[in-house]
Amino acid sequence: MNTQQLRKSLKHKWLEYYRDNRPWITRLRVWSNVDGVRRPSSGFILASLAALEPNLNELLPLIVDLSSDPDRIIKALELDFNPDKAISELPPTPAEPNPKLLPEATQASVSEKVFQRPAKPAIADETCQGTKPMSQPAGRDWH
Known about the structure:
Helices cover 46% and strands 6% of the residues. The protein is mainly α. Strands 1-2 form a two-stranded antiparallel sheet. A hairpin with a 2-residue loop joins β1 and β2 (37-40). The termini are far apart.
């Protein structure tokens, strides 16, 4: 596996993930300043990328054996940058031509569909008597 290619792939996946989830990531308390660079914590970045990139997931045990310092791992993977500034490197996301939305429905039409009776009525089994005859419990008088 080419390490430069892995680094490039990880950077691209991290920036796409960050861009797509930026509204909630920016509100998390995972931000840190490492050597003057404001970015999410190294642990957050590594956990996110482990879910996004199967190759990294295979390499992480070896990487952690070499260094258990998450900040050093992020530097070695060349992910030590502010994602807000680096997002501009990504191509713009294509807009969906026809977003899939739920159809509008009035309360009456929803309840009509939900509570609509089946076309064929269910047949009631009124003759069900069970499999065993009912016996009288010992010590009780049922008269």
